[in-house]
Amino acid sequence: MSTNEELNLLSNRFRTFYPVVIDIETAGFNAKTDAVLEIALITLTMDKLGWLHKEDTLHFHVKPFKGSIINSDAIAFNKIDPFNPLRGAISEKSAIELIIEKVRKGIELQGCTRGIVVAHNANFDHNFLMAAIKRVQTKNNPFHPFVTFDTAVLSGLAVGQTVLAKACKAMGLSFDNQQAHSALYDTLQTANLFCEIVNRWKRLGGWPINIKKNEENYVKYQK
Questions:
Q1: Contact 141, 150 (CB under 8 A)
Q2: How far apart are CA 53 and CA 66, in angstroms?
Q3: Alpha carbon of residue 178 to chain centroid
Q4: Side-chain-facing half-sphere of 156: CA atoms under 13 Å
Q5: Nearest 5 degrees, angle CA 212-CA 192-CA 20?
Q6: Which residues pair with 69 in a beta bridge?
Q7: 167-203 tens-digit pLDDT
Q8: Cα torsion for 194, 195, 200, 201, to the nearest 10°?
Q9: Which of 43, 67, 170, 194 could lock 159 by a disulfide, CB 3.0 to 4.6 Å apart?
């Protein structure tokens, strides 16, 4: 395998981390006490030329775990009725186990060592994911315990915007505010945003590191 082909492997792009885009809708802000109500996940892949793309999607409506808190303000905001039988919700344990299985397979197939959460304001989603994994007592958690890729930070660097809708629009991506705050839609948009930021950095000569192209771009920016 040539050097360029090796660089274009997903496992080499992010220090052997396997990026997994996640959005979680909840019944509050306390990851230890408040219920997870909806969770979506999108895996990513890299083509032979080194461009990042969306791959597979998982999406679950989740039943509040026993003893969890449902905050009325949170429900009013995300407009989720936790006890609506038409949601088709599954247990938190089932959702987490399916997610873990998917991520473990992806890590193995891509030759990576560990999953890493990609999310907008990632600390929130990461905390809820880690708390849920701990509750269901899953062994061998494949996700990094504290490192995340936060698209709010990355888009702040790339286009000076940190709100998901504004960042997407600044990057030339569509965004429907009517669909926002659905785990599936927000995960899709976050995945689009992350891929576009990574791919734009590549187009600018940032990956693989192209010193000559970077210098040419720098000269252009100075004019």
A1: no
A2: 37
A3: 21
A4: 9
A5: 95
A6: 34
A7: 999 999 999 998 888 999 999 999 999 999 999 999 9
A8: 70
A9: 170
With bands split at pLDDT 50, 70 and 90, how would you rate the model's confidence at 151?
A: very high
Is the separation of the CB atoms in 25 and 183 below 8 Å?
Answer: yes
Asked if 171 and 190 count as a contact pair (C-beta separation under 8 A), the reply is: no
Among 34, 77, 44, smallest CA distance to 180 is for 77
> What does the longest C-alpha to C-alpha distance in the chain come to?
62
Out of 59, 61, 120, 181, the active site residue is: 181
Task: Output the pTM of the full model.
Answer: 0.91
Two tokens, residue 15: 């220090």
Q: What CA–CA distance (Å, rounded) separates 35 from 29?
A: 9
As a whole number of angstroms, the distance between CA 100 and CA 141 comes to 7
Lookup: tokens for 18: 């396997």
In this predicted model, what pLDDT tens digit does every residue of 40-75 receive, in sequence order? 999 999 999 999 999 999 999 999 999 999 999 999
Tokens of 68: 């969890």
My answer on whether omega of the bond before 142 falls inside 30° of 0, hence cis, is no
Is 181 noted as a catalytic residue in this protein?
yes
